[in-house]
Amino acid sequence: MSLPPGFLDEIRNRVPISRVIGKKVVWDLRKSNQGRGDWWAPCPFHQEKSASFHCDDQKGYYYCFGCQAKGDAIRFLREADGMEFIDAVKLLAAEAGLQMPEPDPRAREKTDRRTRLLDVTEAACRWFRLQLQTGAAAEARDYLTRRGLDQAALDRFEIGFAPDSRTALTQALRDKGFDEGLIVESGMSAKPDDGGAAYDRFRGRIIFPIRDGQGRCIGFGGRAMDPNARAKYLNSPETPLFDKGRNLYNLGPARAAVAKGQRLVVAEGYMDVIALARAGFEGAVAPLGTAITEDQLRLMWRVSPEPVIALDGDAAGQRAAQRLIDLALPLTGPGQALRFVILPAGQDPDDLIKGAGPGAMGALLDGARPLVDLLWARETEGQNFDSPERKAALEKRLADAVAKIPDELTRNHYAKELRNKQWDLFGTASRRGDWKPGKRGGTAKPPRPVLPIPAAADPQAASTLLEGASLLICALHPELIEQVETRLERLAPQHPDRAALLFDLLSNTRSVLGRRGLETLRADPNLIPMQIAEKTAGEASAYLHEALDRLEARKISEKEILRAENEISGEADEGLTWRFRQIGQARHRIERFDDDDAKDMDKDQKALSDQLSQFVDGQIWRKPPRR
Fold this sequence. Notes:
With about 625 residues, this protein is α+β, with helices and mostly antiparallel strands. It folds into 4 domains: about 5-95, Zinc finger, CHC2-typedomain (DNA Primase, Chain A, Alpha-Beta Complex); about 105-240, DNA primase, catalytic core, N-terminal domain (DNA primase DNAg catalytic core, N-terminal domain); about 260-435, Dna Topoisomerase Vi A Subunit, Chain: A, domain 2; about 460-615. Strands 12-11-13-14-15 form a 5-stranded mixed beta sheet, sandwiched between helices. It has a 4-stranded antiparallel beta sheet with strand order 1-2-3-4. It has a 4-stranded antiparallel beta sheet with strand order 5-8-9-10, with helices on one face. RNA polymerase that catalyzes the synthesis of short RNA molecules used as primers for DNA polymerase during DNA replication.
């Protein structure tokens, strides 16, 4: 629609931008200067507690210093409410008391045609819902019941049914007064190539209505009830209303949930979204039967600056993650990030929530990994970098990937993070060296398995993770408890669920709290790698002893160094400083298990533990009396 010159400026002059935005935010009146039209609030486009969203009435402009969202009142309505440009203009014009200019005949005809198409899809939506209550839909109702959907869920997501009839919907829409051309254009029916009568596109399928950000029904997805159907899922075709690469299922409700503080979770399909939303993760959306597109990524970022992509743990989910890395890198930057959750193998969100509860899903989402971690995993997992050429090839692939990032600051941070990961990978390998039978005169003994959980920079987080690993291993391999019973008794979990689990393990009992503690540990994304492959008793025993060794080393050194810090007074003593350095180095070596300086891991660990004990027994923090 063509607008006369100055019309938009007149709207901006008449309607303060703070009046438009104030309907969506709560102004921070301590930081705002109302007299000058200078307003601050927590940003409506990303989750934050501080007021970094600035609105200036004099300039008619907003800007967020957190996610860099910016624009005028029209842009705000388009981003916040998903409005089309002309709809935002109409709303603001009405608020300003201005009459919208008459559109040209062609624009009016196009708008009227779109409105009639929406009337067709809304009528079809109502008809599908009625069909779900008929006898023909008995099998579909049974399937939905088995999937755990009650009547409230069916109503909430407007789920319907298309009977296995060639013309039932087309005839019902004709009876409503819609002509065949309009029905075909809406995607509800199709014309055969030979020019025969139109036939229903959806037949014998459970129907999921697809609505745009403003709640208008623009298309449908259908799941076949016949297991031999050529396509298990079928979407509406491309129409003037529906473009599957530019829309998301459940967009409107998800946007509202994100505005209230929930995270945006991107799942794979309709049932995943429904399961997530019913479990309390109401900011769930899904692409429409295709891999995520660039337009869908941009749409996600208009809702949240950091969506969480939750992919099934099967091969298809892994491939989808790899494709998304290449799509997202040229688009990523401040306010446009992604995090990823790869579910346990063979499970989708619905399976996980039903099997382990919403808490397990929440734990996975809390531990979602950033895009840079997936890039690193893709380029390194399952590969051996035992030559300069292989290391150089890795470095080149990473450099090529980082070069795709347009934002300079983001690109620099990626490069730094990947350099650190390379240092950790190559530095650790070069320090430890290759194990060789009989090295340094020792017995031919392979290296001790490395505990497959990530290191944590925060000491408390590291201790909590090691404690969780110890409890999880004992729960999965109860035959090992007798070996370490005394050491387990020295654990003192702070969390009630973990304490209950420890009591259950030692007393061979089962409690509600203990079972909940075990479920939480099994859902911890940092501990999931320990459960993917079956471990032999020997491997499990090695992991258990390593976790307890590292945990006890941390506790000893942290406790005694804390006592030292409390008791030291007066001027520094060089001998004392040297001894503290020895404690730090000893603990570091215990946790790194550097076996170059000992015949094998066990002897090295014992020697270092003995060294710590000598320091503790000798109370090295006490300064000798002055003579």
